[in-house]
Structure formats: C-alpha cells, structure tokens
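A quick aside before the break. I want you to see a complete sequence-to-structure record at least once, exactly as it would be stored in a machine-readable document. Don't worry about memorizing anything.
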Amino acid sequence: MTGLPWAAFAVNLAVAAGAAFAVMLTTFAVARTKGLHRLVDIAWGAAFTAVAVATCVLSAGHGDDGRRILVTAATAVWGLRLSVHIARRGRGHGEDPRYERLLAKAPGSRDAYALRTVYLLQGGLVWLISLPVQVAQYVPVPLGASAVAGAVVWATGLVFESVGDFQLGRFRANPANRGRIMDRGLWGWTRHPNYFGDFLVWWGLFLLACGTVQAAALAVVSPLVMSYLLVFGSGKRLLENHLADRPGYAAYTARTSGFFPRPPRRPPHPEDPRP
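That is the input. The structure line, written in tokens, reads:
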C-alpha cells in the first residue's frame, strides 16, 4: 500500500480543525477576560502542537511509526519553543499595537470583531498550514532520503529561528541599545532570521511528508502559504513598514539581505563614485 488511507485522513482533518479551534477559542476566552488579545500569538505554536498530537493518536495503525513520531516531535519542539519565547517576550507588556490598530476599526463589538478576524482566522490558518504535519503521519512508506533532507532543513530553520530570537532578546535587554537597529550576528546576514527560520521549518516538514506523490501534492499547499505570509503578509512586510522611519533603518536595509541570508554589503567609500 502506497496511497493515503483517505477515509481515515478525512476524519483526521475534522479532528485537527477541532483541535486548532479549541486552542484558539480557549485563548479568546482568556484574552477577553484579561483584555489582552496579544495572547493569541502565544497560542499559535501551541495550536500546531495540539494538531500534531491529535493526528499522532488518530494515525496509529495507518502511517509509518518512525515518520509519525518524528513529525510530531519536530512540530511540538518548534511550536512549544515559539509559544514559550513569545510568552516571555510579552511578559509585563500591554496590548500589541497591531491588535490595537486592528480593533480600533471594529464596526461593532471589539470582542466579536477580534473573534472573527483574529482567532477564527488563525485557527483556520493553523489547520491549513498544518497539512504536512497531518499528511506525513498517514504516509505508510518508511523514512527515506526526502525525510532525511526534511529533518536537516527543519533543524537548520529551528537554529536560525532560535538563535535569531536569542540574539535579538539579548540586544534589547541592554539599555545602551535603546532605539538602535539590531544588525549583529544573524541579523547582519538577514533582516529576518526568525522568519527565514520559520520558512525553513515548514519546507522541512513538507519534505518529511513527501513519502508519496499524493502526499507531496497535498502537503505543498502549506509551505507555499506560509512563505507568502512570511514575506508578503503579516510577517516581513508589516514589520518593515513599522520600522521604516526608524533612524538608521534605511542604511541597514541597504546593506542587509531582506530574507535569504548573505554576507552584508560593504557601505560605499565616500570617494567611491560607484553607487
């Protein structure tokens, strides 16, 4: 058997949606009580972990056990690290300005608007983007070369994301850096090492799902959507619009890659006539 067990996978799709929305609705209830909708960012990684664990339970007896365990562990490590990092970063802070601006446009109840445009939307995105996590666990083929490549790409992405977040956190913790642009470490090679890391994580999980042509065709939707969101959606584009007027940011963008890492460009010498 090399195809997916479609009937069992269809049930899993419904359960995975339930797991994603359960995390988001629980978060909404807590955030509404606290008046702090930034909590949804913490729920993002946790929701993927819930989907991975639910799928691992349901896929028992259908997919290859090695692939099931590897994908579940990889998703949980990525998701829980992200949730813990965001929780620590936001401790003691008020509402995120992004949600303040969004909710200021609410045509009626702010809570109802937040539920529709933030929590339910993100629950749907978790379900869609988690397709490789779900598909991989129903692939009956043992781990092969594509899985090894996926594990390497995933691990590289996790390192970029984790190290980038650590370096930025340490930079911000130093009062001497207040108002300055972070351009050290990985941030000197790409303006978004954490987003680039996320990009690699999801292409890695996609490769882990590529045990069959059917699985690859279904799972590829996820990294394509995530890549679009990171570069053109709520990731890189919004953050750079927010930072555009900060002193020194234009010079930083001129010498540093916008996404894919590369050595920083040297600033031109004042007497060099070349642009």
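Two observations worth writing down. Residues 6-34 form the longest helix (29 residues). DSSP finds twelve helices and no strands in the chain. We'll return to this after the break.
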